[in-house]
Design brief:
Helix content: 40-55%
CATH superfamily: YqgF/RNase H-like domain
Strand content: 15-25%
Number of strands: 6
Largest sheet: 6 strands, mixed
Distance between the termini: 38 Å
Number of helices: 6
CATH topology: Nucleotidyltransferase, domain 5
Number of domains: 1
Shape: globular
CATH architecture: 2-Layer Sandwich
Length: 160
């Protein structure tokens, strides 16, 4: 989704779009799934680890929801938490999805829209992020391979 205008972002979300709100954590992520109108497909948030095994669990969950609800496109949205989103973002891109970022300040300011409660937690945040994805209040994040290669080489050098 290389859209830059608000109308183009809105047009990118159709009836066949599965919208994911993901709360990124250092070790554990939480995800919730919605349709273009905001109907939630997930009864409770999916909890998955920040590991390859956790990402495979997440991918299987996405594929199951896509098949069950007849979706053909996925837009995963997340609040970029430090560097913890890098691995998940790379995994999503490697699997044909382009993650979008939701501004953390906007999530904080609007977290009480649904339940009039200012509390912030791992189970509530993915829903708020899904709302921003659905209304196209996001920024597309396509990380270049060159950037990823530099990061990997720096990591390898620091382990020597």
């Amino acid at each position: 989704m290389k859209s830059t205008t608000q109308n183009a972002k809105i047009a990118a979300i159709t009836e066949k779009t599965l919208i994911l709100g993901i709360d990124v954590g250092s070790e554990t992520h939480f995800a919730r799934a919605f349709n273009w109108r905001g109907y939630e497909f997930s009864r409770k948030p999916l909890e998955f680890s920040n590991t390859e095994e956790g990402f495979e669990t997440f991918r299987a969950w996405i594929m199951e929801l896509k098949e069950k609800h007849g979706m053909d496109k996925v837009i995963p949205g997340m609040e970029p938490t430090g560097h913890y989103w890098f691995n998940l973002g790379k995994f999503l891109q490697d699997n044909g999805m382009i993650p979008v970022h939701v501004n953390p300040h906007h999530v904080k300011k609007s977290k009480e829209l649904d339940d009039n409660n200012p509390s912030k937690n791992d189970r509530k945040d993915p829903k708020t992020e899904g709302i921003f994805d659905r209304t196209s209040r996001t920024v597309s994040t396509q990380r270049s391979e060159r950037c990823q290669d530099c990061r990997c080489s720096l990591r390898a050098r620091s382990q020597d």
